[in-house]
Amino acid sequence: MTTVLDRRALNRAALARQFLLTRADVGALDAVAHLGGLQAQEPQEPYTGLWSRLAGFDPGAFSDLLAARRVVRTHLMRRTVHLVTADDALAWRSRHDAMLLQRLLGVYRAELADVDLGELAAAGREVLVAEPSTLPAAGRVLTGRWPDVPPHVLGEAVTCLVPLAQVPPRGLWRRAGPASSVAMATWLGREVDPPDGSGDRVGQALVLRYLAAYGPAASADLRAWSGLAGLPAAVAAVRDRLVAFRDERGRELLDLPDAPRPDPDTPAPVRFLPAFDNLVLGYDDRSRFIDDAHRGLSVSGTRFVLVDGRVAASWTVADDVVTVTPLRRVTRAERTAVAEEGRALAAFLSDGAGHRVRVAASPR
Length: 364
What we know:
By secondary structure, this protein is of the alpha+beta class.
């Protein structure tokens, strides 16, 4: 008989994989690899995500990894900007090509109807092979060949047709910069790995890597995280290396046999999550972390506070003051714990200059 895992059991398992039960004593590069990257369209947000997960996290040292090209910002899972290791960017990009193109045409099929996408890819690569450029600027150059297509459409198309890397200073700690991109082969010194054929070695690796950081999970959760629809064969190929469970809805959940699945009563500390954090966006069924009433906030850029492992509040920061707005009633003990972690976050975000936190009243 298949074991049923309730929401709390799934919650604690995912928190453990995501380094949110206890801050992990691992390097930031290894953490990014373990997590399968960090969603990063808001350039400074991954720093908070890593601070909440890692003991002794040094944002300056992580910024140096980006400058040294050991991590890279690129469009990948779900056609969103992710911060991934250079090795993963090169290994994974070809496996995402079809999805990126499908999502591009889902938005701009009419505008690109008369464009030979192979020609556009070659032209876009030529524009971005030597020097970084913003995509709107690259699009304006490309309108010389396709004058009837809006520049922003051409620029966005190039992100899906050509592997690109967003270059610093964008993404560096406490630095601002335009979203300038250059060919990934130029930035990292070699071409992305070619498609690996019918064996789908990369797809199988993605399944195992996902479960290591997010499991136990259903196939729909894997699809929601990656944006890839073509992984059933990869799941089937590694199935004999996995164990199966059921959730309370009866869905089959797969997992790695030796991955951590803590006791559901394991205490979960307060944690502050950045906008678009992996923990909330990495599942189709997000009920292990967030109530249905607040699910829509997960795609709106809202920053969340976890209390007892679940989304209980949102937070903002201004003038070195962290403000927490509860989404449910919080107890006095919970407010104290939120305030304590909030003060630590304020100090991190202000380089020690501020320790102020404000916890608003609970909703009635």
